[in-house]
Amino acid sequence: MTIGKYKLGTASLTFIAMLIGAALGLVFGEQMAAFKFIGTVWLNCIKMFVCPLVLCIMITAIATQKSMSSLGRVAARILIYYMLTTVAASIIGLIVATVVQPGAGISLHGMDTGNLANMTKEVGGINLSVGTFVLGLFSENVFASLAKGDLMQTMVISIFLGISILMIKNEKKKETILNWFIAAKEMLYCFISIVIKMSPVGVLFLMADTFGTYGFAIFGSMASLIGTFWLGIAAQAIIVYMTCAVVMAHENPVSFFIKSLPVWTFTIATCSSVANIPNSIKIAKEKFGVPDRIASFSIPLGAQINYDGNAILYGVVMVYITQVYSLPPLDIATLVHFVIVASILSSVGGGIPSGGLIKLMMVVDIFGLPLEIIGIIAGFYRFFDMGVTAGNCVGDLVGTVCVSKMEERRAKRLGYKMDDDDIDMGGVDTSEM
CA-to-CA distance for 376 and 283, rounded, in angstroms? Predict the structure, then answer.
């Protein structure tokens, strides 16, 4: 779309659509809910091929590594980054909430606490023991895992297949099967690029529904908690992510933020880490020059195990509850215990229905705090989910860029260049994205 001398890309149009959708929701109220299906159809078009897309991009990312040692080095670096930033996020959530005190002077009288008993019953008693978690990673039927959309199992399958292709001795056979997955990936990229160009339409109706349903009521009793949570997201982005960008990637923080803006707008609008996978891969490759073999490995991995936004929410809500119920401040031992629990729990159980709320409830229950507050949060979770998803996905992007730059410096030090063809999008037209 062109206005005067300026050509507006999809990111700009999506941001404008967010504002228009919010305005429509505030003006027409719940009537806009009747049009939510338009946004849902758009989102479903992205989700429908996510598992096959993850399968293809993970397999090609692994199978195109120069060697097993190269794969191991990239994996180790990105996993360490994800672990450290999640711990940092847990700590930041606690600190921000302790300083701001969002629960001071708040009363729960008269507010709808929801039906937590039914929520717990629907989950059916989730067991996040080590054995259960590990067992859930391994599929007993490849096609069943793809059919039910189990991304964790799909990723494990992809890793096994990618390594298997990498180990094939016959170069001709290896090239044949690898080219098939590369071609399939390019086809799916083309489909996704078409759907992404429709982002402004889908986002407009999703935002109209959200603001039409909640209106300005959000700035009442929950405003303090939501504001504190978003302050935590901002602190994580500025203190942790921008520091990593400067120190590890040698990027200008302002420039980095501007380049990553499409990830912020997309995730805030859709609240879907999965739907954002191709979007983040595109940004990493086009804006930061990250090789495909790194971007297509670390971003899907981060979408499943890196939940910095969730960790911040857990910390903020924990402190909020102690303030609302006038409980004693958390002692050092409890704080350390919380950081460990929040860091681990935020990275597992990705297949839990209503996972964000359920895991939040589990954190609160583990520490013996009142659960009623989760029922209140459930009614406003869309506003938390925006920040949770944005924090998670931006963290994935930052880690991917940092690892790529470290690999680039290592290659330069050893006297060879990163493959230029790794940066190619495989013929996908992303000029409008």
Answer: 36
**Helix, strand or coil, per DSSP, at residue 230:** helix
What string of H, E and C letters represents the secondary structure of 61-101?
HHHCCCCHHHHHHHHHHHHHHHHHHHHHHHHHHHHHHHHHC
Residue with tokens 């209140």: 376
3-class secondary structure for 9-35? CHHHHHHHHHHHHHHHHHHHHHHHHHH
Q: Residue 417 gets which letter from DSSP?
A: P
Q: Which of 274, 264, 262 is nearest to 299 (CA)?
A: 274
Residues in the chain: 433
DSSP state of 327: P
Mean pLDDT for the stretch of residues 348-369: 65
Give ∠ CA 398-399-402 in degrees, rounded to 5.
85
Q: Is this model's pTM higher than 0.85 or not? A: no
Q: Output phi, psi for 146, to 5 deg.
A: -70, -40
CB 46 within 8 A of CB 192: yes
Contact of 306 with 399, CB cutoff 8 Å: yes
Residue 273: Cβ-neighbour burial (10 angstroms; 0-12, 13-18, 19+)? buried
What would the pLDDT profile of 49-97 be if each residue is shown by its tens digit?
878 887 887 888 788 766 666 667 778 888 899 989 999 999 999 999 9
Which is it for the CA torsion 37, 43, 47, 48, positive or negative?
positive
Q: What is the pLDDT of residues 333-355, one digit of tens each?
A: 778 878 887 777 666 545 444 56
